[in-house]
């Protein structure tokens, strides 16, 4: 099982890293084929779309992954409970559509500058991603990590094709570039039939226990809502500093400086989704397969050691060449402090460690306790950012992010020890 986890993490890391490169290419091409105003709208559309689908659909992905992996470890290779995840996924999508329609005018006028087509792409994209995230949870639950990596890579590649079509003159304008965001999740589903071809009949397993034919809406709903709260809190930790700086700073450019600094955390967090994608089904299957608690702890220990080494290397590098690297990467008339950048790296390490401990909590069915930890950390971070304790908004964000994630990690460590 440990080798399977390591192999799955490597496969997903390659897939998601490649996806990141292709996504960067999509925005790079879009910046060349669109003027500044249209490109800003595309960037805003992607930001709203990405945050929305991450918050409302990853709970179902995690629910499916955990449930299917646990059942497979007990020898149940078919008949996995899909009714409750489907109901919950449809409910999240319906709530989004209702909220989007209620806020249609503010979204269209204030975010997309009156462009109705972009609002339509947003709604269609969020709905289509419901199927994509459902497929992701189903694939990781079966430990088909190669297909998962292929799904996200195909999604990014098909999105890029829309921007390239505008670049070569096949299509024209902002709407054509934006349509890639809605079409990509549908195109990526072509990998799902390949998964069915991998299903090999096995020896008949023991029949499931009474009541095991479905998760139960109450139990599945509690898990999904808890993970929803986790995802909402995580987005708060990443985005609250930029929003509060934009609202409170005398210089509007400060929000951009804060955003650039926190990119140090954003990129590794996206890549770490690969580790999380393989870690949860691995941990959920260990107890069901008869593995001891030591195997569970070993998986967590190995992951935390790797995170510590990585975050330490990043922090040291930023202490040495951080200001020079930021000046090279961003064309802004501003000098970043070494200590502040290193603090962001420390916070990134704590954030990744918290994500690991969170997967352990989800695997042990402690989602509610984990959600309480995340919400407490997010609330503390927002309170810190709104306080005038440190006058410099950038330094306040750097100190606050490191402190909030360290506190979060400590709270989740308590939940982990109690497990």
Walk me through this protein's architecture.
The chain is an all-alpha fold. The chain has two domains: 1-192, no CATH class; 222-419, no CATH class. It has helices at 2-33, 36-73, 83-102, 104-111, 116-141, 145-167, 173-188, 192-198, 217-248, 253-288, 293-329, 338-363, 367-386, 393-418. Mean pLDDT is 84; it is low at 200-213.
Features:
0% strand, 419 residues, mainly alpha, 2 domains
Q: Which series of helices and strands comes N to C?
A: HHHHHHHHHHHHHH
Strand content: under 5%
Rough outline = globular
What structural class should be given to the helix and strand makeup? mainly alpha
Number of domains: 2
What's the gyration radius in Å?
Answer: 22 Å
How helix-rich are the residues, as a percent range? Answer: over 70%
